[in-house]
Amino acid sequence: MAKVKGAIVVDVDKCKGCMVCIPVCPTNTIEIVDKVNEKGYKYMQDVHDNCIGCTNCATVCPDGVITVYRVRL
Ligand code: SF4
Ligand code: SF4
Asked: Could you point out which of 4, 8, 13, 55 has its C-alpha 20 to 30 Å from the C-alpha of 44?
Protein backbone atom coordinates (compact mmCIF):
# COMPACT_ATOMS: atom_id res chain seq x y z
CA MET A 1 0.00 0.00 0.00
CA ALA A 2 1.26 3.47 -0.84
CA LYS A 3 2.20 5.70 2.06
CA VAL A 4 0.07 8.78 2.51
CA LYS A 5 1.33 12.15 3.63
CA GLY A 6 -1.24 14.59 4.87
CA ALA A 7 -1.39 18.28 5.48
CA ILE A 8 -3.92 20.57 7.08
CA VAL A 9 -4.83 24.17 6.51
CA VAL A 10 -6.37 25.96 9.48
CA ASP A 11 -8.64 28.97 9.01
CA VAL A 12 -7.07 30.59 12.04
CA ASP A 13 -9.58 33.41 12.55
CA LYS A 14 -12.51 30.93 12.68
CA CYS A 15 -10.90 28.74 15.38
CA LYS A 16 -12.24 29.08 18.94
CA GLY A 17 -9.46 27.11 20.58
CA CYS A 18 -12.01 24.60 21.92
CA MET A 19 -9.47 21.76 21.66
CA VAL A 20 -12.00 19.19 20.42
CA CYS A 21 -9.64 18.35 17.57
CA ILE A 22 -6.53 17.76 19.69
CA PRO A 23 -7.21 14.30 21.23
CA VAL A 24 -8.59 12.74 18.03
CA CYS A 25 -5.32 13.19 16.11
CA PRO A 26 -3.55 9.79 16.03
CA THR A 27 -0.14 11.33 15.37
CA ASN A 28 -0.28 14.21 17.88
CA THR A 29 0.33 16.64 15.07
CA ILE A 30 -1.74 19.55 16.33
CA GLU A 31 -1.68 21.82 19.37
CA ILE A 32 -3.20 25.05 20.58
CA VAL A 33 -0.48 27.67 20.17
CA ASP A 34 0.27 30.58 22.45
CA LYS A 35 -0.96 33.25 20.03
CA VAL A 36 -4.41 34.75 19.56
CA ASN A 37 -6.47 35.29 16.44
CA GLU A 38 -8.47 38.38 15.51
CA LYS A 39 -11.26 37.31 17.91
CA GLY A 40 -8.86 36.89 20.80
CA TYR A 41 -8.89 33.08 20.90
CA LYS A 42 -5.81 30.91 21.06
CA TYR A 43 -5.91 28.73 17.96
CA MET A 44 -4.86 25.34 16.69
CA GLN A 45 -1.89 24.78 14.40
CA ASP A 46 0.07 21.91 12.87
CA VAL A 47 3.04 21.97 15.21
CA HIS A 48 4.74 18.63 14.53
CA ASP A 49 4.34 18.25 10.76
CA ASN A 50 3.50 14.53 10.83
CA CYS A 51 -0.08 14.59 9.59
CA ILE A 52 -1.24 11.40 7.84
CA GLY A 53 -4.39 12.95 6.40
CA CYS A 54 -6.83 10.85 8.43
CA THR A 55 -9.38 13.74 8.51
CA ASN A 56 -10.36 13.09 12.16
CA CYS A 57 -9.67 16.68 13.17
CA ALA A 58 -11.73 18.17 10.33
CA THR A 59 -14.60 15.79 11.08
CA VAL A 60 -14.90 16.72 14.75
CA CYS A 61 -14.29 20.47 14.44
CA PRO A 62 -17.67 22.11 15.09
CA ASP A 63 -16.77 25.18 13.06
CA GLY A 64 -15.35 23.73 9.84
CA VAL A 65 -12.00 25.36 10.47
CA ILE A 66 -9.77 22.61 9.09
CA THR A 67 -9.17 21.49 5.49
CA VAL A 68 -7.23 18.26 5.00
CA TYR A 69 -5.08 17.43 1.97
CA ARG A 70 -3.66 14.00 1.17
CA VAL A 71 -0.74 13.15 -1.08
CA ARG A 72 0.23 9.62 -2.07
CA LEU A 73 3.99 9.06 -1.84
S1 SF4 B 1 -5.84 14.94 9.46
FE2 SF4 B 1 -5.56 13.37 11.06
S3 SF4 B 1 -3.32 13.19 11.29
FE4 SF4 B 1 -3.72 15.12 10.21
S5 SF4 B 1 -3.77 16.67 11.82
FE6 SF4 B 1 -5.90 16.00 11.44
S7 SF4 B 1 -6.27 14.37 12.96
FE8 SF4 B 1 -4.04 14.67 12.83
S1 SF4 C 1 -11.97 21.83 16.94
FE2 SF4 C 1 -11.96 23.51 15.42
S3 SF4 C 1 -12.48 25.34 16.60
FE4 SF4 C 1 -11.88 23.77 18.07
S5 SF4 C 1 -9.64 24.10 18.41
FE6 SF4 C 1 -9.85 22.59 16.77
S7 SF4 C 1 -9.78 23.80 14.87
FE8 SF4 C 1 -10.25 25.21 16.53
From this structure: 4
Domain that holds residue 40: 4-72
**Long-range Cβ pairs for the range 41-47 (8 Å, 24+):** 41/15, 41/16, 41/17, 42/17, 43/10, 43/12, 43/15, 43/17, 44/10, 44/15, 44/17, 44/19, 45/10, 45/12, 46/7, 46/8, 46/10
Q: How far is the CA of 1 from the centre of ligand 2 (A)?
A: 31
CATH number at residue 45: 3.30.70.20
Mean pLDDT calculated for residue range 60-64: 98
Tally the domains of the chain: 1
The per-residue pLDDT for range 18-61, each reduced to its tens digit, is 999 999 999 999 999 999 999 999 999 999 999 999 999 999 99
The rounded Å distance from CA 40 to ligand 1 centre is 24
